[in-house]
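<discrete_fold_record>
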Amino acid sequence: MKKAEELKLYTPEPKRPELDAGLCMSVAEGQGAGRYIKGKTLTVAVWNRAKAPLVVWRFCGDYWTGELRDKKNPTRGELDPRRIDIGSGSVLSWRIDLAATSKESELLRTYFEASWNRNLIEIVEGALSAHNRKKREQRNARQAEETKEALKSLPEPPKDFEKQILAECDDAVFLWVTDTKKLVVRPGGEKEWVKLQNCRCDSCGGEHTVEGRILKHKTWIPCPCCGKQMMIYNTRYPAKRVWANRTFLWSKPQGDGVWVRRYLVCFGFENHRAELGIYARDILWTDGKQVKKWKCAYSVSEQPEYIMCQKATVSSMLLAPTGPYQPYELATISEQVKADLRKVLKTEWMYQYDDRLNFLWEVRQWDAIRRYPMAESLIKTGWSDALATQVYDRDRYYISPNINLRSKTYYGVFGLNRQELALVSGSKRTFRNVDEAVEWKKAGLAITGKNMAMTANIRSLSGLSKTLQEAGMTGGLKYLRQQTRRITGAYNGQIAPQVASDWMDYVDMARKAGMNLKLEKVLFPLDLKRRHDELVTERKKLARIEALRHAETEIKNDAEQLENQFHIGNIYKKIRKIYEYDGAEYIIRVPESAEDILRESQFLDHCIRRGTRYFERIATRESYIFFMRKKADPNTPWYTLEVEPGGTVRQKRSYSNDQYPDLEAAKPFIAEWQQVVQRRMNASEVDFAKRSQEIRNREFEELKANGNIIRTGSHAGRLLVDELMHDLMEVEKRVG
């Protein structure tokens, strides 16, 4: 039995405090007895008005334990007094006084010999902090002694270690060339200045002088001293690097294990000379059964100090921290290091099951095998990539919430039996497929070949399962099959993915709209597509109304400027009687001012408000902006029309600058309205109509010649002139 369990066994549960407070403390003293714990025990509990305490601490001398009552697996961090969840989503601060009786308060202060001016939660926090500090100091002292003893057998690098590093770091070494000259006296007594180049090799450190031969900058030649191919770098150019760092690994077998040392290698260039600094960093020892690692306390030091790591992994040695934006880089790993580690770790068998492994992932998988009981079985059964992603790439890829890597049974990892796993794993084994099957199973659907075939094309089984749990599994699946037949015309054993997606969206929107989903006609609409689209439209309408409300001030300011510049209101006042019209189902409305036009554009989210082009056309009487709306809902924007004088419609745009199928039903009304406008026109409007037609035809010719293409939206890629001509609705009888 663990000490914490013994302490709880021999200590009575705290009693509920008599104080009727929102948050209060209960303190009681009792006897703690066990194989390791003897003496008086102090029990401290924090309560709210619930029956059970939120958190309980038990103190017995220097030993203490604690638990959160509303959590199954509390962590040390959660036991911090500053992290007590009081049930309202807020966090209890240590500055808050807890209600307690004077007797309990005195008992707590006496036990910890605390001053009376400290509040109760501060006393508990101080006790926990003192305990943790003492344990930490004891652990550090013990580990320091262990480190000192272990590192006595640490092998030193060989004398040619610098050459080994330089041989591995090809991308960071150069043949440095410095241009000089000397005075030479020829046999005839003639003096001449001769060009020289002093060379120093980063790789071997050799120095030599070249006379009469010019070594070209950034070309490759063999070093005259070591023969290695080197890139020439002339010092008269700015140095490629003043300071460049590399991480280098060196290994040395010893007994049944192997030592691995990490070095920071600094390549510098100062005063026309290349310099090399080698600094010892982390140390690791492993025999394939246990792993010990010591971390260097300083990044650069001639005599480093080492600290024993609590969680040692071999793979952490292969990656070196570089900075906040690129946190890790792969160290330079020689073939000798790989061979030494593989001999101890015995990882070569992994390539039988995953031939895409590299050395880093090979070692990472070995680390995973040490941590998780079934990791080796997962690798051997084709789950290697999924395992690596789940353990190491948590920030980049999909992480399964249902996979239990700590399970001691193979199928317990997945939460599925043999038959179920065989159905969902497939050829490409990812935990995403397993997750969906688990969610499906939780929802009550048996994982069978028939059911999996029925839902094979549905992307989000987990999302659908939640909807089915609400609707009922049997009724929900039956409804989806019926809707698949209704929409596609036939049911081939598979639910159409769009049907499932529309139903999930519909249920979610209906819930947010406050609709009663307990009613069968609401939950299972006869025409799913129509009801889905109606709710989408309604949501868009509400969202646009909200956006319009937020943009109120901006619209008024912009409208005022436009009115001052273009006098929109005065123009529309003169033409209102000509163009306003009410039909049987639709109406045409003439705006009152520029503000009306901006509101319309904001609501429908189209391009009119993005500039002054359309307002300039209104001012010159080239075209007008009118509103077409449904007579049953005259106050809700529907289509915005750009109309030439005389009634020719250039553009008809609704939500997001687009057109929808409902426009076709309104086209006969537009033709009817155009005929009415023809009869109402005066002489000035006739003149404006002729001029507008000429301008439009000329612009169309220019657009056609230039080949202008629409770049964005649903019509992207089409010629602009083709789209405008397709949208054009001329009056049947031409003016004049």
User: Anything to note?
Assistant: The longest strand covers residues 257-270.
